[in-house]
Design goal:
homotetramer, about 350 residues, alpha/beta, Aspartate Aminotransferase, domain 1, Aspartate Aminotransferase, domain 2, 4-stranded antiparallel β-sheet, 14 helices, 13 strands
Chain lengths: ~350, ~350, ~350, ~350
């Protein structure tokens, strides 16, 4: 079976696993106070180009979003997000469970528009009853989005400026950050992200780690006393060094970026193969997630040949949208096989 | 350096790590819907002797406590616990963050007394203003306790009966369950735990896993719709099979119990060594945690000989209480070395 | 100045105030355990025709919604509501502050459609990832709605059937219930409400009380142990008899219904006056709230003649939507004055 | 029947009720934006001698405590309070429902000791695992306390200094503030309270209002954006002017202080009567609450002569502690009657 279901179906990248094995017998202090974590933090800060940043290593994505948002918002505030955003749809209400409303904006292939953010904030404060509504207290976006799309540097700069002029932080969910940075068209660097966002996270789970997300706080006014919140949210691992070891492996020799580039280039080969044969890419995604509208006959043909992938939404009468995702574990042979089946 | 600081200072038991490595390249579905998790669940149910139990695999201890307690209590209820209980002291307010008060009872070397539980409940409902107070909605105990002590079967039976006569669930935190079951004096089996508790968890993090806690729900009335709560609490791992693989390894050939027995027998050798030399065991612990009142000179002597361990509370003028903990990684040679230094 | 701004701009109806004054010097026990409250509860149950109902007297509307919803929903659930619903828009995030998402449905002049409710529930459980989303745990509607419209008995029956077939409670916000029951076209009785809803509240604040909302629980499975929740939510008045005295006054001689009928008939006279002069009623409201699209010149003319009312949304270039609301304090002379100014 | 049960058993002081009646027919804007509220705020600020203070009028005491504490604490913090404090015992878990632990201190007839506060804070930050515990984020005291006792100016100054040196706010629950200020021995003025506390509230419910508590925020760093929190907590009354009218009446001609003085002087006459006859005052309370240890025979004698009062705790075999409370409604004749019965 060849898997294009998601980027978290296999275990850890061999280089990451190798480091976990190599350090397994060592004893360290717990809860992230170990030297591996310290080293990983330094590597991440260096990769971001922000010496003054604070970096925290958490376990999973929903957990990270809930912990960060809970730590940033005041009690009367909510978080702005695309109506397709992960926190708005697929986190089992984790944000509301912390007491905060997700204030939704229209999305354009997963992205929010700067003008919509500005209008929302302006109209909110123009409403005489605004104290009876939930104040926009931060902006959540993801890079890349749920649709695999990425913001341009210009778009990201505009969002950042709007947020800062409204005195609300910009938070970027980077669950698949490596794939966004490696996108064909992308003109945003990790340094740009670190400069334009107030907080963001570098996703490990979907980029070769067993698990782990690195929160980078560049705005020094935010998230003081974050460790107790991390613990409240169940994200403080006793064997915290597991996160340190993995992120050290990911950032020591640019493994994180290499995984991103490899997977994106594979995804684009698949995209080209489908499109050149006349199939529609329903989203023009430049990253490791590709969405195609395929005849059900082709879907069945591929599946009967041991190609595994997800349908996106419900199966249509004749055609259905499907998603193909590449990751660290996708091989050259996987790519060749699927193309040969088209 | 030889470490007696805690049972989570090293990585995973080699048999666990071996399985993680052996399965690393496989692709599976996410979020615990994989076959490893299914297999682990069956092994755990079998070990507990309760076919009808529901088993859920979570990541860490504080997270597990918060998720279970949040899932059980009604909004007007709190959780009874020893004032020394982990949820009362060392979880950064995770229980309160879910909206619930921890109602504390006196502790006796970490244990609560059945009569105190009964009095609390009786007096609560006898108070005319009880609706202005927080109703006791469940009982939390740990086995073994923070002091390494274990409940006898008689004590556990009494607690269970009191809870059930008051119609509140009994929840047992088994972060170190293996060490309790292996205690010298212990007359409680895993089946007893499963029979007497309504919910409990089998700790993996401190018993040879990289991380992981298995929640066993034996009361069929409790914790329906638990998966969304697990996700809300950040405990639903994308690569959920990591938990399945580890618990399968721990329960396939009784590894879980072997780790417990080995570590407890080592701890008791250390205890005997200290006590026979005239040092006081400040708690009569039969498990893998041992507490001694030692002269500061001996403490300094041991530490200067690369023996690492924690002080328990603040350093005294001449004597200080210290804690020695054994785990899967404690070797025969470690034991011999420390004894030779006494 | 003549006020059509809202139905809460004046104090209490004279009959209500008279009872507060008459009983002021009496001493009673606190927290709603007094005989006035008991009497009010009996009168309300009798008016609803449900002897077995439980009735609780709270202080305000947002508070009542938050307390009821918090008491009904399980932790993984949210509340379905029209996107125009009060809980979705104008409660400062009080529902989310309790940990629950408001799941919004399209609205049709403030009403939700039974088919939309059914689709939402069906599609939710058809989605394979539904455990990663927020489960619909109850339906919130208001009678009348924010737009002054009312559900027909057929519509209400359908909503009730859908809720019960999906095993989720139907909750009706009756902040302005008296005006809905008195609506020209209305075919729904208080008994119907009590029969079709699982919980609802009878609004006092906007119908002649100083404050106060009576929660009626007809589904015996819901809201056990509600008093501590009422207190948690700040709704348990020390001088609880104030609520009892007021609701007794409102329900003793049908004052509640008389206020509704009087105000609605006045509102319909105003409506007729505007419409017959060619102005548009932007909502076909049969209750005490009327919405007209008026030329700005007329708006200014009325206001300069001491008629006070609210604009609905922002002022247009030439025309603006305005709201006229009648209440217990609206006089015959008020009606004549405004009509004379058209 | 003569009532000494509590200070909230009767309605409003006649001067307060008279103002409610006099203003009842007026129309005002809602939610506390009316001129009566503005006037009350000015009178309160003037009485406190702090022009720059912010004043908010809420409905009830538990609600006020929950709203203020929820607004002040960061997510990782708890509130220090006497173990006998109202928030620790008698608020149905309202503080925990907001997500915060009540961190209890020993009490001495209801009061906390400055040295205990200091030790708690010092020891907290000295503990290496403090990030795994709940940080003390504010201090809650009441003036007078649950036992009717008051802090001296020296004690209050010490508490204030400790709080400010630890950078945590001091919050004073003044549910019965008038009675504390009127205490025989009291050397604390309202201006002292306003100067030493960061936030406090002036209780109306127990001092002659139908309901109402005035929160005074003197620390300009605290409780920005408080109105949405007031609404979230169900404390924003639609007819907000009811609070304004009442507090205006209470503060216009010093009615608030007159009520306090009258009730305290009556309570001290009762105290003198009991003590001079050899009965024990179990607390040396200088305020309107008096606690006596009485023979059950006397208790029964008084009750059979229509004197109503509460027992404090459970009835003893021969003697029982009882509480006598005076209020605005206690008459000279009430006092004479009870004394005649001793």
């Amino acid at each position: 079976m060849i898997y294009f279901d998601s980027d978290y179906t296999a275990g850890a990248h061999p280089e990451v696993l190798e480091r976990l094995c190599a350090t397994n017998a060592e004893h360290t202090v717990g809860y992230g106070c170990d030297s591996y974590t310290a080293s990983a933090v330094e590597l991440i800060k260096s990769a971001c180009g922000v010496d003054s940043a604070k970096v925290y290593l958490l376990v999973g994505g929903t957990q990270t979003n809930a912990t960060v948002i809970d730590g940033i918002l005041a009690r009367h505030q909510g978080v702005l997000a695309a109506e397709s955003g992960h926190i708005a749809v697929h986190e089992s209400g984790a944000i509301e469970a912390c007491g905060h409303k997700v204030l939704t904006l229209p999305h354009y292939q997963g992205k929010v528009k700067a003008s919509d953010v500005r209008s929302y904030i302006d109209e909110f404060y123009r409403d005489e009853t605004y104290e009876h509504m939930v104040a926009p207290g931060m902006l959540y976006i993801s890079f890349p989005t749920e649709y695999g799309t990425v913001y341009t540097l210009k778009e990201l700069t505009e969002l950042s400026e709007i947020c800062h002029s409204a005195d609300i932080p910009l938070y970027i969910d980077g669950a698949r950050l490596a794939y966004g940075l490696a996108a064909a068209s992308n003109d945003v660097t990790l340094s740009d992200i670190a400069r334009l966002a107030d907080v963001f996270y570098i996703g490990g789970t979907k980029v070769g780690a067993l698990f782990g997300e690195a929160v980078v706080v560049t705005n020094p006014k935010l998230l003081h006393h974050f460790t107790p919140l991390i613990k409240q949210h169940g994200a403080l691992l006793a064997k915290g060094r597991l996160l340190g070891v993995q992120f050290e492996a990911l950032f020591r020799d640019n493994l994180y970026f290499r995984i991103g580039q490899k997977a994106v280039s594979q995804a684009l080969i698949i995209k080209e193969a489908f499109v050149s044969r006349g199939y529609t890419a329903v989203v023009d995604s430049p990253t490791n997630q590709q969405f195609f509208l395929l005849p059900n006959t082709l879907i069945d043909h591929l599946r009967s040949n041991n190609i595994s992938f997800e349908t996106w939404g419900t199966r249509g009468v004749e055609q259905t949208t499907v998603r193909f995702v590449t990751g660290w574990a996708t091989t050259q042979s996987d790519i060749e096989t699927i193309i040969s089946l088209l």
